[in-house]
Design goal:
By secondary structure, the chain is mainly α. The protein contains 4 helices and no strands. It comes from Actinocorallia libanotica. Keywords: Membrane, Transmembrane, Transmembrane helix.
């Protein structure tokens, strides 16, 4: 039988991965959208990466789950660079 303390710890562990899941769903959604329209899919992926960088910058490490892989500055720099790079790539791409 599970005590209430164990249930709270289990929910806390799952809730800690919510920002990671949001970023992952955004990137996968962007990949799916890029089949129909490359530019909109790239913008969705860029927004998702920038959201991940913002989460890493402002949320405590206990609530970030797998978004914490390196030092805070490195994680923010990498995700923001990828997001801005994707946005720039979508903006300059021909066609759509």
């Amino acid at each position: 039988m599970m005590t209430s303390e164990q249930g709270e710890r289990g929910r806390g562990r799952l809730a800690g991965h919510a920002p990671y899941v949001i970023v992952l769903i955004g990137v996968l959604g962007g990949l799916f959208a890029s089949w129909q329209n490359f530019r909109s899919g790239a913008y969705i992926m860029a927004a998702s990466m920038l959201c991940g960088a913002a989460c890493r910058a402002f949320l405590p490490e206990e609530r970030l789950g797998f978004l914490v892989t390196r030092k805070r500055v490195t994680d923010i720099t990498v995700m923001a660079s990828l997001g801005l790079g994707l946005a720039f790539f979508a903006w300059t791409a021909r066609g759509g």
